[in-house]
């Protein structure tokens, strides 16, 4: 099954695509735990080599509580993308509410070391309603 990217943002010729899925098998609604997995594709449409250095996430739960998560690279990697190359990774997000959202930015550097920020598009986290 081919995954469809539902959300995308382009900043300075770098495209960030996001596909998000709710994982019922990792969630325990009765215990106040919901879990989503998201697939990110980074595409270098520029004429320069770039390297992902840092990430910044703004995660908002269904109550409006905002968490900021900063870190080096993504899933332990700081990929280098040549012009025309793409990099994919998968990660997850737990929440204590059945809905929320994520957005943020990546910090990349160009081949000359110049840093720049690339937007991660806003995407909703929404558990499907269950009919018992």
Automatic annotation (TrEMBL):
Domain (ApaG) ranges: 8-132
InterPro entries (alphabetical): ApaG-like, ApaG_domain, ApaG_sf
Protein name (Swiss-Prot/TrEMBL): Co2+/Mg2+ efflux protein ApaG
Organism of derivation: Allopontixanthobacter sediminis
Taxonomic lineage from the root: Bacteria, Pseudomonadati, Pseudomonadota, Alphaproteobacteria, Sphingomonadales
């Amino acid at each position: 099954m081919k995954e469809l990217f539902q959300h995308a943002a382009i900043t300075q010729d770098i495209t960030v695509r996001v596909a998000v899925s709710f994982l019922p098998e990792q969630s325990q609604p009765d215990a106040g735990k919901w879990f989503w997995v998201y697939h990110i594709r980074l595409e270098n449409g520029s004429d320069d080599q770039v390297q992902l250095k840092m990430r910044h996430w703004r995660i908002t739960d269904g109550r409006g509580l905002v968490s900021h998560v900063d870190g080096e690279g993504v899933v332990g990697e700081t990929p280098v993308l040549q012009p025309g190359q793409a990099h994919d990774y998968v990660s997850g997000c737990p929440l204590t509410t059945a809905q929320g959202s994520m957005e943020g930015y990546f910090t990349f550097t160009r081949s000359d070391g110049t840093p720049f920020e690339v937007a991660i598009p806003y995407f909703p986290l929404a558990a499907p309603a269950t009919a018992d």
